Amino acid sequence: MEDLQFDAGSGLQIQYRFQKARFDCKHLLIVMSGFNSPDPTVYDFTTTLHHCHSAILWIKDDFNRLPAYYLCQDLDFSIEAGVSALINHIIASVRPEHTAILGASKGGSAALWFALKHDIRHIIACVPQLRIGSYLAGSKWQEIGRVMTGNLDRQNIALLDALLPDKLAKDERLERNIYLFTSPEDTQFSTDIQPALPLLERYQNFNLIETHSRFVNRHEDVTRYNVNLVLALIYQFEDGITPRWGSVHNGARW
What InterPro entries does the database record attribute to this sequence (predicted)? Predict the structure, then answer.
């Protein structure tokens, strides 16, 4: 695994890590990061993916030491364009037969966004925020929302809230394989996931995994609980297998 920087132009440097594929694997996995504490910009899934054969691209959401949902600062979307340029660069270099994208929470939102932009067919999104503005305005990450928009007022909250739903609504490539992990214990289930289900259920292979367990009581518990299922998906993608799970439940509380 190498720590690298991508020059996206105009002084924008994007930090990333890259691991070459193992054996004869022709699969590329792109990993987007969620919020972390105390450093909200660290990479996700670095040790979890140790046994994967894929070429793996981790992209760091770190712009002036703050995350930006890989999108913008002061409503300038140069960051989003730079991240897209990096993804295009790696895909052109690796020339994979298949590509998947993975992310949790903020990373799950980014996984959905960049999958649609780059026509990536395999998407694993764990507890993504679909209403980014409202989440930032009501969370401890308000400062990040202010940096992203310049002023996290009602108008800019609505602008951020509309980004992902609008992109999903306009997407015509409905043959994508989407695996969305959630839980009724996650407070964002009713605010972000349920309202977006009509948009997501248009996809031919949309899979909703709902976890109800005494070990899942918070938003961040959902991804930890489901790491084995996430890995099971990636291992199958690496061999060209695309499972169809549909709407399923796991955990012992159902």
Answer: AB_hydrolase_fold
Residues 53-92: tens digit of each pLDDT: 999 999 999 999 999 999 999 999 999 999 999 999 999 9
Give the chain as a DSSP string: -EEEEEE-STT-EEEEEEE---TT--EEEEEE----SS-TTPPSSTTTTTT--SEEEEE---BTTB--TTT-BTTBTHHHHHHHHHHHHHHHHH--SEEEEEEETHHHHHHHHHHHHTT--EEEEES--SSHHHHHHTSTTHHHHHHHHSS--HHHHHHHHHHHHHHHHH---TT-EEEEEE-TTSTHIIIIIHHHHHHHTTSTEEEEEEE--TT--STTHHHHHTHHHHHHHHHHHHTT------EEEESTT-
pLDDT digits (tens, 9 = 90+) for 2-48: 899 999 998 999 999 999 999 999 999 999 999 988 889 999 999 99
For the chain, the domain total comes to 1
In sequence order, the 6+-apart residues with CB closer than 8 A to the CB of 39 are none
Question: C-alpha 229: how far from its chain's center?
Answer: 16
* Amino acid of residue 112: L
Tokens of 98: 């298949």
Residues in contact with 128: Cβ distance below 8 Å, sequence separation at least 6, in sequence order = 103, 104, 105, 107, 108, 109, 111, 112, 164, 180, 192
In this structure, is residue 143 part of a structural domain? yes
What is the residue range of 60's domain?
2-23+38-249
